[in-house]
Amino acid sequence: MYVQLILKICISQFFKIIKSKIQKTLIHLETAELLRLNQIERNSLISRLFLVQKVRIVITEL
């Protein structure tokens, strides 16, 4: 009886630890992905700014 109880507690704690590790990993992956997406968005905004400036230069040269 006590062995079963101890075993249940150990298994429960084991799965709590595994769940916590998985959640931390997912948060880390999500954070890294969001940072990468933000960087891509910033780069595209910068490239759009340069594109708009090039179009303005071409229009003014005409």
Write the layout of secondary structure elements.
Layout: H1 2-61
Give structural notes.
The protein is mainly alpha-helical and 62 residues long. It has one domain. 97% of the residues lie in helices and 0% in strands.
Rg on CA atoms, Å:
27 Å
Helical fraction equals: over 70%
How many strands, what sense, and barrel or not for the largest sheet? none
Helix-strand string: H
Q: How many domains comprise the coordinates?
A: 1
What would the principal axes of the Cα set say about the shape?
rod-shaped
Structural class: mainly alpha
Low-confidence stretches: none
How far do the termini sit from each other? 91 Å
Please count the beta strands (DSSP E, at least 2 residues each).
0
What is the mean predicted local confidence, pLDDT? 79
- The amount of beta strand, in percent, is under 5%
Total number of helices: 1
Essential attributes:
mainly alpha; single chain
Outline of the structure:
97% of the residues lie in helices and 0% in strands.
